[in-house]
Amino acid sequence: MPKRNYGFEKRQKELTKQRQKEEKAQRKLERTKATAEDTSVESPADEIALEE
Questions:
Q1: pLDDT in tens, 20-50
Q2: φ, ψ for residue 4 (rounded to 5)?
Q3: φ, ψ for residue 3 (rounded to 5)?
Q4: Most distant CA atoms of the chain, gap in Å
Q5: Number of H helices and number of E strands within the chain?
């Protein structure tokens, strides 16, 4: 039975964690970008409604 390669397993685990962290950061960036666009579009309509 061959010996386990713990170094390889650790590196694969680290790569998986890093990939998941980057994906999460990308989703967060997209979410904040979408929220910023939504608020900028809705803001003028809200201001007009408040003036009336």
A1: 999 999 999 999 988 887 776 555 556 565 6
A2: -75, 145
A3: -75, 145
A4: 80
A5: 1, 0
